[in-house]
Each structure stands twice: as C-alpha cells, then as structure tokens.
Write a structure and sequence with these properties.
Strand order of the largest sheet: 1-3-2-4-6-5-10-11-9-7-8
CATH architecture of the largest domain: Alpha-Beta Complex
Distance between the termini: 10 Å
Oligomer: single chain
Radius of gyration: 21 Å
CATH superfamily of the largest domain: Amidase signature (AS) domain
Largest sheet: 11 strands, mixed
Shape: globular
Number of strands: 11
Strand content: 5-15%
Number of domains: 2
Length: 494
C-alpha cells in the first residue's frame, strides 16, 4: 500500500487541536484525506459515496469560523466517514442495497447533526453489508470491501467500509452501527478501536433500522482517545428517539485520566468465550493480552455466562423478526425505486413482488423469511417469545457477573480476517463470526474492541472488553492503559 500523507497519520484529537490553533487549515486536512481516498479506495472499496465538494465546503466553513474568532468545535476539521445506513440531508443513502439506489435523505440523522455542530467534516458514506446484515461486507449489492491489511481478506462486517476507511488513513474517525457485533468485529479484523455504546446512549434517529431493540451507533478510531472524543460528541439524550436514555452528558476525554495503571481492577474472563475451533493465533494473541492486563495490575478470574451457548440462536430469531417488520416499508411505493411501477399492466401485488424480489439480496431475503416465520401465527410463542425469555437470562448472566468483576475480557472474534469468499457460501459459518459479540447486544451492555496483537500472517487480532451499562468511561480507562503498554503498529508503518 502507498505511504500516507503525514496529515492522514494524525489522530482526530491532533487534527482538532491543530485546526483550532490555526496550525493547519481544515481545508488542507480534508484535501489530504480526499487525496488518500483517491489513491487507495480503488483497491479497498471502503466508500460508496465520496463527498468531495460538500466536505471541502464544510472545511472552508470551519476555517472561516475560526478565522472570525468563533469558538472551535471539539471535532473541528476532523474528517469523518459515515456508514451508509445513516441519513445525511441531500445525500444518497443506500444501505448497500439496490432497493434504495437513488434515495436522497430529507434530513440529518441526529449523530450527523452532532458531528457537524462539533466542526467535523463528513467526507463520505461507507460500504456495508446490505441493510447491515452480514459479517464480512461481502453482502453489499455494489461491491465487497477489502481489508487494508491484506486485500484478499474481508474487513469484517457489517460496518466493514467504516473500519477499513479508518484503518487505511482515509478518515480520522468513522461511524458504524452494531446490532450483533458490526462495530467490534470489523474493528478487530482491521486493527483499530471500535466501541458499541450502551443501548440508548447514542441516538438512533436517522439510522435505517435493522433490529430496533439491538441497533446502536458507535465510533471507529485509531486510538482510545479519539474514540472517547467521538463519544463525548455523540452521546446524550435525544427526544426524537423514543429509545434514547435520559442520561447526563459526560466528558469521556476527561475520564480517561482516571487511571494510570490497572491496580485493583477485577477482570472476569468468561470460560464460554474460549471455544473449540478458535483460530490458534487469535487465541494466543488474546491470551497474551490478558497477561498484559495482569502485568498492569489487574486481577483476572474465570467467570461463567452459562446461557452464552444460546446467544446466536436467540439473536437469529429476534434480529430477523424485527428486520422483517422494519423492512416491510421497502415496497417500491413509499420507499425504494421500482421499474415495476412503470408497467401499466402491473397490479399492487406484482409491484411489491418485483420490487422486493429484484431489490433485496440473498442474505436480506433469508433473514426476512426467517423473521416472518418466527412471527407467524402458531409459531410466535415457540420461537420469538421463547427467544425473548432467553434474552432475559443472558442479561441476567451479565448482571450477576458484574457483581464480582469490574469488566469482562474476551476475544472479539474467533479468528483474524478470513479470505474473501471463504464463508460466503456457508451462512452458519458466517453467523458464528459474531459468536463473542452477540451476547453484549442482547444484554444492552457497553463493549469495545481494541487491538491486542498480530497473527503469524501479520493480521490484527482484537481483545473485547465489556462493562455494565453506561460504564463506557471504565472501558476507555482500561483501553487507554492497555494501549500505552502495548502500542499497536500503524498499518503503513509495517
């Protein structure tokens, strides 16, 4: 891969400080990242849409305000990429699906509005598995995204475009959505930091829904500090989102300084998260990461989350059921383009059938059918109802574990990045890629993936840290201490 411009190596915090201090113009920062995208994204395929004109206009406005003496925002001049299932007024939002090709958002998602208010520069919309359904970003209707560490490997999914953009230096920050691991798993495979906040901490208003009781927006970053900075901007109650938690705003950057070491920290290691079939190199890296936590003063102990073995099957009843309901609106009449509407002989049913038959890809169809079946008369209690009861047991497992430990530590993924096409023909193997991330979504807890090592093939491995609800500050503190003890290599410095 080509060497990045020096500016594209800067962290988001460094960019914001230097733009605010007038050491560099926001427009210069934007141009450096646009040049990086131009030179690299043909190989990686991280972006569906690059917003060159609008990002330069946003950057010039940041420069104008700073030159006029106005207060600089916390993300002044920071180039941010947005997963293409979040609305940005006037820009195309496709969700990686043909059915939404050409749809332009009429308003900004709350997270996009908060980024703009903080001075961030939205540089583009990133690729994803169609409607966020997948673990490799191979299910996009347009093209697959490749892992910047090895172009024959997947970046993870469904937020693979957002992860790849940050890992490759094409954006300083990005946003993804995490329904069953779609931030943490690609962060692990791309060697960066990925945070799934507590359910309800970050507004979902303007996020195209997959599974409404599970979806959560969160940041990708190259450092813990940048992730904390991003969450400080994104988090907070939103009256436009009925699931938004009414919590007081927090400065997660300030909370980072709460720990210099890990003395006294109680770390639980779930025995159910080290399973037969894990890639040996991945397990070795995670075990070394756990040893580092101990060397930094933490006390580790084995804990049990006994209902973990039911998590994947529970998820694949609840998530598809909610998806089948949420995606019913994409019928070619209210949402979604459809050539069927041009057929004067077509009736309403044929418009629906043709629109959804041609517009949805195989994985989305598979999940809609699974979900519709789980919700159907005579099967609701046996499948969806039972899955919700098991979900409660999984949440209780976490609650009980957190009575005796401060955080949980585990692998993020059972393997490093796998080859393109390796699992695309076997849905069950693909679903198991999220085996360690799904339980956190079912429980609603906070989770983060941080780089903890490389395999013998030079591929990144992620360590997952989990905390009780609304304890993101605790995760950031532990992650920061770990990061300083075991700095992770910058991709192009290898």
């Amino acid at each position: 891969m080509s060497a990045p411009n020096d500016i594209t190596r800067w962290s988001a915090a460094q960019i914001a400080a230097r733009v605010a201090g007038r050491e560099v113009r926001a427009e210069e920062v934007a141009r450096a990242h646009l040049e990086r995208i131009s030179g690299l994204d043909k190989e990686v395929g991280a972006f569906i849409t690059v917003l060159e004109e609008s990002s330069l206009a946003q950057a010039r406005e940041v420069d104008r305000r700073i030159a006029a003496g106005e207060a600089a925002g916390r993300l002044s001049g920071v180039p941010v990429a947005i997963k293409d299932n979040m609305l940005m007024e006037g820009t195309e939002t496709t969700c990686g699906s043909r059915i939404l090709k050409g749809y332009r958002a009429p308003y900004d998602a709350t997270v996009v509005g908060r980024l703009k208010a903080a001075g961030a520069v939205i540089i583009g919309k990133t690729n994803l598995d169609e409607f966020a359904m997948g673990s490799s970003t191979e299910n996009s209707s347009f093209f697959p995204t490749r892992n910047p560490w090895a172009l024959d490997r997947v970046p993870g999914g469904s937020s693979g475009g957002s992860a790849a953009a940050v890992a490759a230096g094409m954006a300083a920050l990005s946003l993804g959505s995490d329904t069953g691991g779609s931030i943490r798993q690609p962060a692990a495979l791309c060697g960066i930091v990925g945070l799934k906040p507590t359910y309800g901490l970050v507004s979902r208003y303007g996020l195209v829904a997959f599974a409404s009781s599970l979806d959560q927006i969160g940041p990708f970053a190259r450092t813990t500090e940048d992730a904390a900075l991003a969450l400080s901007v994104l988090a907070g109650h939103d009256p436009l989102d009925s699931t938004s938690a009414e919590v007081e705003p927090r400065d997660y950057l300030r909370e980072l300084e709460g720990r210099k070491d890990l003395k006294g920290l109680r770390v639980g290691v779930p025995k159910e998260y080290f399973i037969e079939g894990m890639e040996p190199d991945a397990e070795r890296s995670v075990r070394e990461g756990l040893k580092t936590l101990e060397e930094l003063g933490a006390r580790t102990c084995e804990v049990s989350l006994p209902h973990t073995r039911f998590a994947v099957s529970t998820y694949y009843l609840i998530a598809p059921a909610e998806a089948s309901s949420n995606l019913a609106r994409f019928d070619g009449v209210r949402y979604g383009s459809s050539e069927a509407r041009q057929d004067r002989e077509a009736n309403l049913l044929s418009v629906y059938e043709r629109t959804r038959g041609e517009g949805f890809g195989p994985e989305v169809k598979r999940r809609i059918m699974l979900g519709t079946y789980a919700l159907s008369s005579g099967y609701y209690d046996a499948y969806y109802g039972k899955a919700q009861r098991v979900r409660t047991l999984i949440r209780q497992d976490f609650d009980e574990a957190f009575q005796s430990v401060d955080i949980l530590a585990s692998p993020t993924s059972p393997s490093a990045a796998f080859r393109l096409g390796e699992k695309s023909g076997d849905p069950m193997q693909m679903y198991l890629s999220d085996i360690f991330t799904i339980p956190c979504n079912l429980a609603g807890n906070a989770g983060i993936s941080i780089p903890c090592g490389l395999t013998s093939a030079g591929l990144p491995v992620g360590l997952q840290l989990l905390a009780p609800t609304f304890e993101e500050g605790r995760l950031f503190q532990v992650s920061r201490v770990f990061e300083r003890a075991r700095p992770f290599p910058v991709l192009d410095a290898r």
